[in-house]
Design a protein that fits this description.
Blueprint (H helix, E strand, L loop, with lengths): L1 H23 L9 H21 L5 E4 L4 E3 L3 H11 L6 E3 L8 E4 L3 H10 L6 H11 L13 E3 L27 E5 L32 E5 L23 E12 L6 E13 L2 E2 L1
Antiparallel strand pairs: 1-4, 2-5, 3-4, 6-7, 8-9, 9-10
Helix pairs in contact: 2-4
Pfam families: MGAT4_cons, MGAT4A_C
Protein name: Alpha-1,3-mannosyl-glycoprotein 4-beta-N-acetylglucosaminyltransferase C-like
Keywords: Glycosyltransferase, Transferase
Length: 279
């Protein structure tokens, strides 16, 4: 009986708070129309209740919407970025759009809930969250690319208007079969050969001064059917591209005499990779 009474009281309180938007009137910031102000103000209060409810249920809280698609291995990518953070942070962003793909510490959720509830009528939620970050002394945006989430909805929750919003930085991270990767090319810093096989931003192989005869060998841990091979070299600025290389398919793997990797008894040429593409 007590549980029912408390639940009824909470539902009544939520309905009462929602009705206040219509009774008390709202600020017309940004010259928005009244119905738009009502919509975004209620949305802020909804988020306030949501993040308060999620407090203490995990180490982190990821804000998403119900009309997004997720990149493959997005959870592993987020975990990797969190583990690599060397400075204190309040918000990590994994999408360039609105209130999608924003990560918070769970311990900050009560603060975020009160912040949204206090300023619910001032501005939209995607404006408020940037101010929240600054208040927690994170002055710069920490956003990772490629984005891990893409907006897929075609219509806005507000009046059902058409919405073609897309994240231009979104990329569905690839997945490669389990394999061991070896190379005799000297490595620059921590960018080892295995990173050429791993998905995610910042995971790439960086070799120093490769020369004729050097190799990068991938040995599958289990038999696979190879349907395509893509080789990408160079930086986003177009520097350090591999001028020419031969791609070979090996059969009957054996351990190299040096014991430092695996080679094959037979090799078949499947293509030549040049800076301009495949030949």
């Amino acid at each position: 009986m007590v549980g029912w009474s408390v639940g009824w009281l909470v539902r009544w309180l939520v309905r009462w708070l929602t009705s206040c938007f219509y009774i008390l009137g709202l600020k017309r910031n940004f010259n928005d129309k009244a119905d738009r102000v009502t919509f975004r103000s209620k949305q802020n209060v909804d988020y306030s209740f949501l993040v308060q409810f999620c407090t203490g249920r995990s180490l982190h809280y990821l804000q998403l919407e119900d009309d997004v698609s997720c990149s493959h291995h997005f959870l592993s990518a987020i975990r990797g970025h969190v583990q690599q953070m060397e400075v204190p942070w309040a918000t990590l962003e994994f999408s360039a759009l609105g209130y999608i793909g924003k990560l918070y510490h769970s311990e900050h959720l009560p603060l975020l809930s009160r912040f949204l509830f206090l300023f619910y009528q001032e501005m939209p939620c995607d404006f408020l969250f940037s101010h929240f970050r600054v208040l927690l002394t994170q002055s710069e945006v920490i956003r990772f690319t490629p984005s891990l989430f893409q907006h897929t909805g075609s219509y806005s929750s507000f009046l059902g208007t058409f919405n073609k919003l897309k994240d231009d930085d979104y990329e569905d991270l690839y997945t490669n079969p389990a394999a061991d990767v070896y190379s005799d090319i000297p490595v620059y810093k921590e960018h080892v050969a295995a990173m050429a096989w791993s998905p995610g931003t910042g995971t790439f192989f960086w070799g120093r001064s490769p020369s004729s005869g050097n190799h990068l060998t991938v040995t599958f841990k289990h038999p696979v059917v190879v349907t395509s091979i893509t080789v990408v070299t160079g930086s986003a600025e177009g520097r350090d591209r591999l001028a020419s290389a031969t791609v070979e398919l090996g059969l009957h793997p054996v351990t190299e005499k040096t014991g430092s990797g695996t080679t094959c008894q037979e090799f078949y040429n499947v293509g030549i990779c040049r800076e301009a593409g495949w030949t």
